[in-house]
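Q: Give me the 3D complex with 2-phosphoglycolic acid.
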Amino acid sequence: MPLIVGNWKMNGLKADGTLLAAGVAAKAKGNLGKGREVVVCPPFTIIERVQSKLIGSGVGLGAQDCAPKESGAFTGDISPGMIKEVGATWVILGHSERRAGHGESDALVRAKVEAAEAAGLTTIVCVGETLEEHDGGRAKDVVARQLQGSLPEKRPARWVVAYEPVWAIGSGRTAKAEVIGAMHRHIIVQLQRRFGKLDGVQILYGGSVKADNAREILSIDGVDGALVGGASLKSEEFWTICSAR
Ligand code: PGA
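A: Here is the predicted complex, encoded as structure tokens.
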């Protein structure tokens, strides 16, 4: 069943965040479970408010990052258990904005994934090449290295990998269907080599997914859903993506 995840990034104060959550919940009520799974990932500060709006809608709730530890002297960090306690069950990890903007290495992402899984969160691990790596023909090597370094030894019962070419994020420039399809096949091969069976894994595409291209993207072989940034901030557009088929 395709999975659509809305990554709100650093957007959403109490008022607009709850309005957006209520909008998504209203559209989802009675319509989920019919071939779509939907998750929203608001900023930490409004997770509880968003949760109260999602009750009964079937829409899942996630965070956008977590610490690799459960507690301790880590000023500014939020632990997986804290996220779980406020009602979220998902977490996005290794997003390129954290890898680039906060210097997160594959090893750190892996430690976060392990901590999140130990706390019972379902992880969405992001990989993807920069424009320079793409133009230099290194995309597949980069993604293979990120998968190797960021995923834990033991595969969890349910896990999600998101392929997000950095040059397609927030740029309005979506990767071509052949490029997405080829990379998703490459990811599947890498995961099979390492983990054998691929039960319980879904591979999402992210990067300028919008209402007008969602259908095409979601129909590509090997694409099990989408990670949506900008277009998840308007409930109408987000819902059009969620219901694209
Ligand atoms: P975008 O972001 O849809 O705005 O390109 C996607 C993401 O960064 O997850």
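A quick observation: The longest helix spans residues 177-195.
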